[in-house]
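Below is the record:
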Amino acid sequence: MAQRLFLFFLHIVERITYNNEESGFSVIKIKAKGFPELVTVVGNLAAVNVGAVLRLKGEWKHDSKYGRQFSAADYRETVPATIAGIEKYLGSGLIKGIGPVNARRIVRYFKENTLKIIEESPDELVKVEGIGTKRVEMIKKAWTEQKEIKNIMLFLQSSGVSTAYAIKIFKTYGNESISIVKNNPYRLADDIWGIGFKTADKIAQQLGFDKESYERCRSGIMYVLSELSNQGHCYATRTQLISEAVKILDAGEPLLERTLDQMINEKSVILKEDFSHYF
């Protein structure tokens, strides 16, 4: 019998048991409505912190060693709304300069407005006992960095990028992730292992990229060369390359002829001296 898909809406991260910073794979414990004990969740959960409120999509699985677990295929994060949730969120180590003690002091002082204060009027934090101007500057910097990471992840996920790929993209491009993906999503196929032309093309179409753009045609031709290489070919003829690219890109031959000529000029592909073979 096939496993059912479940949606967990707005549940709180209580503990992070394991996190691999390179791959983004994590094991977390969440407090979920209808479950008396904490639920174990596994999956690519990059930039998730204790106290965060998650919307998870996935399925139940049974691990032979660890038992029943919820395997998350996707997630979305929102900030906590309750005082207790905000305190746990800030005290998790998310923001450099705010540990559990300072988190408690800040939340006691600003209550439900805490996150709004940090976002809009962080200099007011000096009103809290034990927090001076140097610490405020540290908090402001750390808050901005974390916000940038979360904005990038949100943008990538909303653009049709899976969580696993979003992690790879962020690891590769860092704070430039959004601008690079917006300007030329086909770079992903060149730069990131595991993301090929078809995945990059899907992302590009989600972003409204022109199907006849040079970037798309170039990437499609490179994909054809790669596929021919995987089949054991050492080169491709011009006719063969254009013919296969037409099928992949659903584009006209004249456009692809111009694209290939530009690629030759840029030395993206190498043309043999007798003008018959492309590498």
Observations:
- The chain has four domains: 5-78, 83-152, 159-206, 214-278.
